[in-house]
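A protein record in our archive is deliberately plain, so that people and models can read it alike. The tokens are whole numbers drawn from a learned vocabulary of local backbone shapes. For reference, a complete record is included directly beneath this paragraph.
>
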Amino acid sequence: MTGRRFNQMTTFEERVAERVRQAREDVEKMPPSKERDGLVQKISEIEAALQLNEYVQRCQPYRE
């Protein structure tokens, strides 16, 4: 079975950063609740993953 493939118009980092931005806007609109706390935690985890991804990319030798 072959899957459909397509080229992304934006990078992984750009897509994730946009999702984090949207999530932050959502958090600002929400009243204090467990759901809001969970979203804040998820944002923190995603930002940590982005930082780790950036670090790993810097440490890898340049490849063409």
Notes: The chain is about 70% helix and 0% strand. The chain has one domain: 12-59.
